[in-house]
Give the backbone structure.
Amino acid sequence: MKTLSLRSLLLCFALLSISWVQAQELTQTIRGRILDRESQTPLVGATVVVLDTNPPQAATTDADGYFKLTKVAVGRHTLKISFIGYEEQTIPELLLGSGKELVLNVGLAEAYTSLGDVRVVAEREKGTARNEMATVSARSISVEESKRYAASISDPARTAQTLAGVVASGDDLGNEIVVRGNSPRGLLWRIEGVEVPNPNHFSAEGASGGAVSVLSSNVLSNSDFFTGAFPAEYGNALSGVFDVRLRSGNNEKREYAFQAGVLGVDFAVEGPLRQGGKGSYLANYRYSSLALLKDIGIDVTGGGGVPKYQDLSFKLNMPGRHGTLVLWGVGGLSTSNSHAVTDTTLWKRYYDRFESVSGSDMGVAGLTYTYPLSEQAYLETSLSASASRQTFQSNAFETEGRVTDADQKFVSTALRASVLYNHKLSSRHTVRAGFIASRLGFDARSGFRDDNYGGQFVQFLDQRGTANTWQGYGQWKYRATEQLTISSGLHALYFALNGHSAVEPRVGARWAFSPTKSFSAGLGLHSRHEAPFIYYTRIPLGEGAYSEPNKNLDLARAAHVVLGYDQLLREDLRLRVEPYFQHLYRVGISPNPNSAMSALNYGGGTATDSLVARGRGRNYGLDVTLEKFFTGQYYYQVTGSLYDSRYRAADGQWRGTRYNGHYVLNVLGGREFKVGRQRNNLIGLNLRLLWAGGNRYTPVDLEKSREAGYQINAQGQEWAEQGPSYSRLDVRLSYRKNNPRASHIISLDVQNATNHLNLYGRFYDRYSEQVETAYQTGLLPFLNYRVEF
């Protein structure tokens, strides 16, 4: 984008803020439900107060825990919720627009002891995880944050990349998450409490991210993100957990949202299943903008490949006399292709001669029934089905003609059934137990030309089958004193494909030794199995024979230890410090005693090596967060991490992993300006500065590469080189215009606003016979218009 164009857009924002005014004060409704956080029973008579209206507006909950506040002025508000015998909770940063009602579901924690009519004040901190068993390394990510942060573009994964201990995987175009130096493959994705395939478009097999999230902000609720020592209910995860929740639709009023921008065209609808009932529906559909333009005859790529994707999300919430039934689903389809340079005189790089087409699809649907056994206990049962498919085909134009270079297809399916029992024994004791049974299916083939086998096409995988996993867990939350809370539990995982199992104790504690300061700690064992087809990787033996050496590969294991210190420096400013240590063991490595190959360096894709579970790894570091909440119309957040991530393979040497960047610093902040005659409209300016250790890569042995005719890496120097420091400035400018019946939002996100070229890696090019440098994406603008009505 040229500077003049950017200035023109900024001028448009300014003119809109001056010319769009209103002569009346606009209002909207805030309503929702207040529940006991542990037992999920409604709290009758709880008080909800909007603190920043004059005079303050208040409401109390009815017999089912519902409240409603009408005619609240649009803008940002802070709610305070209180109930006798329960800890008071304050919710800041709530943005109320004229186009949609604000519907909340809030859980209050019962006070340590019953104090009769004395009200306990212990405000719940912003960003506290929804999961009440969490004590450390956990944070709730709000939908509003994912919309507001610069270049997060309503993607919860990109929002998570701003947190302490988290960094992107080294590709500006992707949203993959590296947690505390671990491979992104160790991340567990859950939706509505169910393990799901990677919910991202344009993803590779085995990866946990992609270019565009399948999850739409129109259907998301606040979600929990864990960076270590997670509670016992989370299994099959090594590095982190993203526990995503979908919100319920408006059960009183039909509402719509439409948006169009660079990323896609969305339409969302929600409303009551029937008038006067408590049930609701919510659905969102999106189609890629570039593909839509090409479909109508407008090709903005100049004949290049057009990324095409679409996704659908929905949730039906059906409360009844004896419980609540929820039907939900998320799915997405995506394809992309690249064209070869067919004129050989124009070839400048070796890869100019390649053409490819790839596809990435995923879908999951679930049915959940929550049955209240009593006022203190409930039973939640869930059934789900999911599937994912990744395909990749590549052809090369050679002197002998068109040659197949790669042909891959990975199809994975899962049927899951789970039961969760939760019982709040008293204000001091809560227990939770559950069981998960999974039936995994796979149909996979993977073949490509491999230089290690003379440039011949090798079929490394061609297998279909099934595998079962069984998981069980138990947790106990104990408030030993008014200041000390202990959460302990046990998780067990059994992988029936080869009979390996793991028993994983977990424990965490939080000691609030003053009203504004607390210490926390967590430790536990964690394990994860690979995708089932990894165990069927084939290794050529010659003359058409293959071996399958990975069938008995053990579960990879990790021990997490985390300490934490939190201090509320003032009511809207918090400091958090977390040192941690992780010991990884039984990691897949090559059995070759001279090899430095380890699964800890895998990103996406499947194995092409024999693997034995003898590898080691260790991660340790310090995460620091200084966060100023959104008060006084501005906020800021500074997160920093110093860390070291190392591994040991069969050759016995300790090396830095592929993801060992050593440091990352995020500085983000923003300011909102009220404009218009009644100051009902908002201009937002948000910035993010990212500074991190550069990408790591293995140096190329140039002489040997020239002799062999293909890339040969320097032996014994795996991931030894690191590029220059990575830096990027992101900018977001937005304007919200509130009308009596609709809200209009226009926004511009600019990723890498300074057009700084960061190093991606270095590789040997067979055409030039030189080591070439690949750079990451430069300036990337995202313009978007949205209307809510």
